[in-house]
């Protein structure tokens, strides 16, 4: 080839930078990664975003970490005195520190951390990180799960037994292609998951109805049939209010509720607990529930082990009050659904108008559209997940959704099929059977700690106060705690107080800067990864791909997977890590699929393993010939949760006002009259990517969106720097006017700290009130009682103009 003709090569793969995982074609020019484009033949390859297009800038950025570094000066010193060390030395020191801490305090005193896989490529390695934790013997994984995943994927399990959204956890995804009506609830896929946005636009073209529930008119809101401009933090009330209209109008699938929910179960009016069959005068099992047949006026027993009633379900009462003959005499009882309907009734349209700031006509229009345009699907994300009432909001949404009867039908939220795959997370390893309870489990037994996930605040408590037991070490795979979480000052103190902290990342961040050892990580374009299923549809789920490394890692960077294997080997756990052979781990995962590693290597674009989608799987039979039902204690969708009651929570998801809000704290609202919420930017992922000039040029500084009238009352012009102050702290941002926003609400952005040298912007101090760290304004002590989710949204604030940023 002559010097003038560049050697151009294209490599198919997918972009790992965010949850969309877009199918891509990378161009290499003379061996250098120069472009990323969509791969239209890929199930997620219709388009890519600006961040994806900036991938070469990310890969070759001069601030990338390139060699392992060791701190030589004390934490707290403004200069850490980073010294380059070899990988061997780094891994030896990590293993030695882990052993030392485990000997002194037990392996649970070594916590791990990772970033969210929705905002990074850590999904390449999460199963290996979990396996290392299980092999070593610690349950404590610190990450933003309480803020991201809990609401949509786990809280809803207390209703459906499965997540209603988020297939990664086996949840039911919106089948947008077949939906009659889609609800985007506090979710803006135009910015955050373009694969869902393109599917929505295609749906709108064929006449699908769209409901957007968001304080902002953003993304697809202006194309929606109904845009509900909800007051931040009141989505739980809205879900109950929508359900109220649907129940009042008879717009709900009674047959489905009767057959597949625990709505018919009788609740004793004296104790407020579900009536059990062994309490009946006619007798029955202590684990059996009781419903009422209103035609023949008698109690009907239900056996959850078989998932069957003793008689036909067609006349089971959902409403009303009945007198039941029991061992203790006559008892008044009402079906659980009657309790739910009564709760919903307290959220009448005028209450919703006062609570959520949504006019009755719009509420009615939304309920009407939802019922008449079935099948309905929905996806709810950060808009409802970042509040101190996230769990009950998610449950209320799930119950409202159950009314539509669209669960697991074509066009509803569907439990998509998956290519069979082997698990490698290592729950069966010897040390995994002896784990101490994860931090936070005792305080919140139904929360994320149940799945061995630890919130930042609880982790800080374990380090600083030794509660519930001391944590002395942190093995960090990314995660930018000090920018992503509230209480950054306390977080800094906790990280500095650790006996040992290693952090693996692409860039030096304020969080990484507190580590003893920093490891350079290869970006997803510099490493291989296996992905089985692409989540958004049955077709996407059938796609299996071994993503190739497009270029060599920068400097001495390694993949997170290699780092896990390196640590495991040094700890003497190599045998539990396929003797260090990553390929063998791929083979174990692929085993049940029938696809071989060789086939995948030969086909970088990926392979399809065609999958059929059975619907209404709850109506199918289990191995004993019983109706499969739902994986809840009652095998039914639970409108009434005895599990919640047993743990001191309410059986039904009543709405609780945001703890720092105008209704709960009118005293604070005097000095802080505005409601502060936030949203993700389209050009960056969370706290990342501000150093990439092509992106930063388009968004130089954080913004705070506010109504022009709100600004005028405070002498603020569009573009002015302002101070945003809450009872917890302050930050600065530039005013951006939006006349569609309620004048009582302002919307900020988090994640700003990183400079961009090419544009002359320096890093900002994440701990200074005149800096740009939104999470200084968050009081992380304000938390959801079930999940510990801190209220990053629906805070109170005041805004005033300031002369300059800093
Ligand atoms: N106020 C406010 N706070 C929020 C949110 C909000 O909307 N508002 N959002 C919340 C949500 S939803 C989430 S998920 C969290 C996110 O918080 P985190 O999960 O901490 O995610 P990021 O802040 O994006 O930081 C990711 C870090 O991982 C690094 N990284 C990227 N890719 C890799 C990789 O492949 N390997 C390794 N080892 N490191 C990598 C990045 O360089 C970066 O330092 O923040 C939460 N905090
Ligand atoms: N470009 C980009 N893509 C991303 C990310 C990113 O940072 N940037 N992060 C990834 C991650 S980890 C996540 S979690 C997802 C998040 O994806 P989304 O959930 O779409 O993220 P947000 O923009 O934080 O929140 C969605 C909407 O909630 C609205 N909102 C704010 N408060 C409320 C409220 O009280 N109620 C309701 N109903 N709505 C409210 C906001 O105005 C916003 O439009 O995106 C993923 N993809
Ligand atoms: S939306 Fe952008 S960042 Fe996310 S996977 Fe697609 S191209 Fe990558
Ligand atoms: Mo997230």
Automatic annotation (TrEMBL):
Region (Disordered): 611-632
InterPro entries for the chain: Asp_de-COase-like_dom_sf (IPR009010), MopB_CT_Acetylene-hydratase (IPR037949), MoPterin_dinucl-bd_dom (IPR006657), Mopterin_OxRdtase (IPR006656), Mopterin_OxRdtase_4Fe-4S_dom (IPR006963), Mopterin_OxRdtase_prok_CS (IPR006655), Prok_Mopterin_Oxidored (IPR050612)
Ranges where the 4Fe-4S Mo/W bis-MGD-type domain occurs: 8-63
Membrane keyword on record: no
Keywords of the record: Iron, Iron-sulfur, Metal-binding, Molybdenum, Oxidoreductase
Pfam families linked to this entry: Molybdop_Fe4S4 (PF04879), Molybdopterin (PF00384), Molydop_binding (PF01568)
Protein name, entry field: Molybdopterin-dependent oxidoreductase
Taxonomic path: Bacteria, Pseudomonadati, Pseudomonadota, Alphaproteobacteria, Hyphomicrobiales
Cofactor(s) needed: Mo-bis(molybdopterin guanine dinucleotide)
Family (UniProt): Belongs to the prokaryotic molybdopterin-containing oxidoreductase family.
CDD domains per the UniProt record, alphabetical: MopB_CT_Acetylene-hydratase (cd02781)
Matches recorded under Gene3D superfamilies: 2.40.40.20, 3.40.50.740, ADC-like domains, Dimethylsulfoxide Reductase, domain 2
SUPFAM superfamilies documented for this protein: ADC-like (SSF50692), Formate dehydrogenase/DMSO reductase, domains 1-3 (SSF53706)
Superkingdom assignment: Bacteria
């Amino acid at each position: 080839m002559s010097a003038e003709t560049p050697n151009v090569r294209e490599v198919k793969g997918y972009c790992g930078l965010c949850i969309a995982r877009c199918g891509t074609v990378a161009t290499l020019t003379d061996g250098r990664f120069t472009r990323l484009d969509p791969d239209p033949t890929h199930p997620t390859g219709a388009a890519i975003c600006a961040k994806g297009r900036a991938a070469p800038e990310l890969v070759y950025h001069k601030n990338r970490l390139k060699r392992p570094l060791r701190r030589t000066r004390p934490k707290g010193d403004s200069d850490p005195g980073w010294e380059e060390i070899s990988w061997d030395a780094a891994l030896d020191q990590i293993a030695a520190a882990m052993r030392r801490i485990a000997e002194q305090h037990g392996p649970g005193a070594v916590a791990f951390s990772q970033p969210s896989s929705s905002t990074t490529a850590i999904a390449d390695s999460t199963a290996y990180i979990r396996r290392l934790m299980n092999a070593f013997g610690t349950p404590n994984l610190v990450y933003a799960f309480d803020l991201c995943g809990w609401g949509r994927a786990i809280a809803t399990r207390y209703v459906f037994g499965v997540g209603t959204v988020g297939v990664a956890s086996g949840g039911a995804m919106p089948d947008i292609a077949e939906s009659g009506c889609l609800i985007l609830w506090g979710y803006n896929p135009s910015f955050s998951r373009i694969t869902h946005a393109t599917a929505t636009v295609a749906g709108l073209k064929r006449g699908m109805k769209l409901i957007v529930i968001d304080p902002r008119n953003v993304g697809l809101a202006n194309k929606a049939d109904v845009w509900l401009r909800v007051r931040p933090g009141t989505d739980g009330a809205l879900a109950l209010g929508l359900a109220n209209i649907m129940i009042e109008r008879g717009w709900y699938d009674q047959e489905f509720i009767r057959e597949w929910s625990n709505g018919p179960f009788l609740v004793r009016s004296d104790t407020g607990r579900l009536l059990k069959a062994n309490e009946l005068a006619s007798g029955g099992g202590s684990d059996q529930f009781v419903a009422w047949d209103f035609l023949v006026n008698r109690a009907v027993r239900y056996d959850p082990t078989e998932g069957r009633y003793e008689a036909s379900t067609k006349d089971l009462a959902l409403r009303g009050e009945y007198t039941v003959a029991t061992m203790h005499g006559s008892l008044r009882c009402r079906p659980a659904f009657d309790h739910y309907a009564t709760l919903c009734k307290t959220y009448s349209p005028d209450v919703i108008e006062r609570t959520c700031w949504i006019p009755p006509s719009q509420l009615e229009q939304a309920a009407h559209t939802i019922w008449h345009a079935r099948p309905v699907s929905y996806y709810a994300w950060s808009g409802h997940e970042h509040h101190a009432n996230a769990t009950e909001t998610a449950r209320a949404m799930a119950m409202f959704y159950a009314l539509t009867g669209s669960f697991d039908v074509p066009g509803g939220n569907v439990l998509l099929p998956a290519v069979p795959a082997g698990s490698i997370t290592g729950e069966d390893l010897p040390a995994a059977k002896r784990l101490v309870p994860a931090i936070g489990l005792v305080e919140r037994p139904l929360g994320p700690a149940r799945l061995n996930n630890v919130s930042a605040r609880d982790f800080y408590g374990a380090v600083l106060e030794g509660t519930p037991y001391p944590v002395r070490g942190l093995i960090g795979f990314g995660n930018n705690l000090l920018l992503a979480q509230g209480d950054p000052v306390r977080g800094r103190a906790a990280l500095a107080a650790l006996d040992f902290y290693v952090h693996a990342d692409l860039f030096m961040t304020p969080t990484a800067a507190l580590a003893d050892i920093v490891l350079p990580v290869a970006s997803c374009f510099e490493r291989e990864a296996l992905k089985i299923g692409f989540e958004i549809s049955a077709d996407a789920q059938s796609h299996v791909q071994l993503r190739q490394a497009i270029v060599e890692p920068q400097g001495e960077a390694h993949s997170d997977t290699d780092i896990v294997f390196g640590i495991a080997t040094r700890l003497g756990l190599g045998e539990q890590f396929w003797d260090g052979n990553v390929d063998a781990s791929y083979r174990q995962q692929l085993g049940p699929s029938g696809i071989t590693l060789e086939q995948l290597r030969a086909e970088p674009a990926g392979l399809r393993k065609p999958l059929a989608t059975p619907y209404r799987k709850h109506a199918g039979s289990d191995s004993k010939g019983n109706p499969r039902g739902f994986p809840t204690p009652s095998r039914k969708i639970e409108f009434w949760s005895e599990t919640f009651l047993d743990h001191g929570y309410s059986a039904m998801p009543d709405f609780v006002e945001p703890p720092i809000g105008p209704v709960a704290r009118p005293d604070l609202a005097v000095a802080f009259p505005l409601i502060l919420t936030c949203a993700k930017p389209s050009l960056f992922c969370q706290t990342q990517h501000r150093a990439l000039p092509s992106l930063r040029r388009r968004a130089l500084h954080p913004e705070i969106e506010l109504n022009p009238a709100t600004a005028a009352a405070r002498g603020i012009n569009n573009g002015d720097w302002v101070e945003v102050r809450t009872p917890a702290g302050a930050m600065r941002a530039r005013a951006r006017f939006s006349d569609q926003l309620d004048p009582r609400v302002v919307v900020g952005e988090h994640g700003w700290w990183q400079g961009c040298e090419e544009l002359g912007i320096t890093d900002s101090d994440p701990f200074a009130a005149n800096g740009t760290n939104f999470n200084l304004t968050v009081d992380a002590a304000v938390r959801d009682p079930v999940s510990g989710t801190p209220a990053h949204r629906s805070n109170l604030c005041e805004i005033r103009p300031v002369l300059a940023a800093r």
